[in-house]
Amino acid sequence: MQGFAGLSQFSVFLLMALGLAIIFGQMKVINMAHGEFLTAGAYTTVVISDLVTKYCPSLLPYYFIFAIIMAFVVAFLLGYLVEFMLVRHLYHRALDTLLATWGVSMIMQQGFRFIFGGREDSAILPEWLMGSWSPTDTIDIPLNGLFLLGTSIVMTLLVAFLMHRSRWGLNVRATVQNREMANAVGINTKKVDRVTFALGCGIAGIAGAVFTTIGSVSPAAGSLYIVDTFIVVVFGGAGSLLGTVLAAFSIAQSQSILEFFLSGVLAKVWVLAIVVGILMIKPQGLIANRVRK
Amino acid sequence: MFKQSIKKLFPDRAHQLSFLILAVVLLVGIPLFCDSFRLNMAAKYLSLAFAAVGLVICWGYGGILSLGQAAFWGIGGYCMAAFLKLEAARNIAMEQGSDQIKALTTVGLPDFMDWNQITELPRLWYPFKSFPLTMICLLVVPGLIAYLLGNAIFKRRVNGVYFAIITQALCWLMEILFVTSQGLTGGINGITDLRTCLGWDIQSDSAHNILYFLTALLLLGSILLSKRVLHSKMGKILVAIRDMEDRVRFSGYDVSNFKVFAFAFAAVISAIGGALFSLNVGFMSPKLVTIEPSIYMVIFCALGGRRSLIGAVYGTLIVCLGRTFLSEKFPELWMFIMGGIFILTTVVCSDGLAGLVEQYGSRLWNFIKKYTRIDVLLAKISPRLTLSKEQS
Hints:
By secondary structure, chain A is an all-alpha fold. Chain A has helices at residues 2-26, 34-55, 63-85, 94-116, 143-165, 167-177, 179-184, 189-211, 221-236, 241-261, 264-281, and strands spanning 132-133, 141-142. In chain A, helix 2 packs parallel to helix 4.
């Protein structure tokens, strides 16, 4: 059971970290508003579920797939807007992106509070996500946890394919490595930046939509995850997808195993301390890109 | 001698003037317009400004953005609060000397320790029995932690962004520790109900007034000290590291030592502010030691101008005043305004208010000088009037 609790924690970390691995790992933009894009995705799902229950309850079993797509679209568009209005002026000042996006996160949080109110909201789960799967009598695995795990694996594969096997991924990697050169060979680097940032935000939106299956949504929900997520990405080695997966897995599993022996909060302290300690020894993270400096 | 040292601290008249204005504002202006309640509030803000001053040195000049400054600030605060709490506990024990109470509680032990079934004073609290030891602790402990941490991080050449995230994680860690070790730190409530310092009632109006002046003077003093550091060779190397680290390293300097110094110096200055906060406000809580106040400290510094020690104080005052007054009247708008300030200061004027003053200040001064000279003014308004005067 403890192992599965770790696995669902792992999926949460991984889904959050995927978007950030693109934005922070590839573009070196410190997006403190990442959690708020997740909240945006979650609220989109809640709104769609409310609309569906009100107007056409017969569609209830199928709406969730549509909600995930809409969550992606909403977060993508928001990300596109933020990049266009703000982040593109700050590419050469990494630390300033941190401050500016913190401001964005405050504004977005307050915006959610303005529109949806401060209380917690939750989406209505379709029936096929409720209940649990029990292969034997003693093991009881909740279906929404399985769905979460499945989504995070599918998304990881999708991102890996996008980054390493597609034309667009090639453009992104070229832009990140040498902007001038990429420009010179005819890549529209501004467009690549914009779409990459928006895509990272869109993935956060998907994460938010999936998170509604395991918890409720509140305006400050995203900010709870943001430090954890940054630590996962940094620990894994920024820019390495495999590293991110490894880091999410090791942090989540060690935390849930330690929780078995210690209290939850102390387990968190230990894991954080160990991670920071390892980062001091290996500042580049678990899997470092070998680059000559 | 005196003149020379002033010249060393203030290279030009503008710096001298701006420091004088700050001193007048803090020592004359604010006390003149505030009653003792407001003055206490101002003292609270000023004790936060210490952290912003520290950040100017390590972020603005050293290029090291620490997102965990509140942790160091909080250590100073907790040290002071521990001393005050022990004294409060002793006083209560003196007042209620009856045997019945002695049987129920342990004499001279802070109340929250009683609630957590601790019967003996923890070893960690021993230094806070004496005032001088507390003073040493609140300066040395944060400095030492920053020194060790900085050494570990900078020797491995961990750069800006990663450093920021690591300090953020450490700050979070610190908060969790403060919250969970209830018997030692009072848990989520923190250390509350501090009344006297060395037998002096710190909650009275006169004490609030005196503490305000103490805070303001110490703040001015720490600005002078920071100026002294920044105008020395050490400060110049720090700036060189910020602008082109590799070049300094190739010139034969051990870059990490300079960074560690800047980081530790900032930590010590912040800790003084934390200690003053405990004295002024009468409590210390883990809510003040987390990431959010750390980020606020960074924004104080950014709004005032990350390269201006004096600007940092104004930045703190403006943001804190805004938070207090606007959040009471328009609680919903305030977060939008705050976010807007974050974005505007980073995108439009990255040197903050001090940068604006530097850019437009002299122009504005000339403008005022030009149009406030009465003869010029008169001549502009009615040339004939001045002419007729001369004729008569």
